[in-house]
Amino acid sequence: LRGMIRAVDESARSAGQLLDHATVLYRAEQRAAAPVDLRALVVALMDRFRPTADLRDIALALDDRAPTPFATRGDTVLIEAALRNLLDNAVKYSPGDTRITVTLDTSGAKARIAVQDRGPGLQGADPAALIARFQRGTGVGGVVGSGLGLTIVAEVAAATGGTFDLTDREGGGTCATLWLPLG
Fold this sequence. Notes:
Mean pLDDT: 88
Largest sheet: 5 strands, mixed
Strand order of the largest sheet: 2-4-5-7-6
Distance between the termini: 51 Å
Number of strands: 7
Order of helices and strands: HEHEEHEEHHEE
Structural class: alpha+beta
Low-confidence stretches: none
């Protein structure tokens, strides 16, 4: 029964990721641009992930250094999909009794949203390879995933005039940074 439940969960997550990816590809072509309050979006998503993180004794912390307003112009659905994938990965791969920090700040004309965890890190993998469709790192263990989450983030960044960086975090873990134009 547990095996069946796990298989159904894996299938549902994979189907959800495929749908998210298709949505990103479609909406990226539409080039919809409206003001997006990045701070409000991040706070709402952190609130949504908090119960899952709490079950594993993972603390979610916001390090808000950004000015007010902290906004971009883009498609809210796309940007939310990118941020949701960053937080989902951080929670999935972080061990219990650790902290995930989401930092909001700016550099020049760019908004910076950095999600830092204490998971397995990149383990020597090329970040570009991990961003490729259906690719996963060697440190995933038994964690369910489709290999589309980071692809979605990178495609959203490109569609909105931003960039996406993935690096090892000093002391262990990963820092995933989404850069978006301020506006």
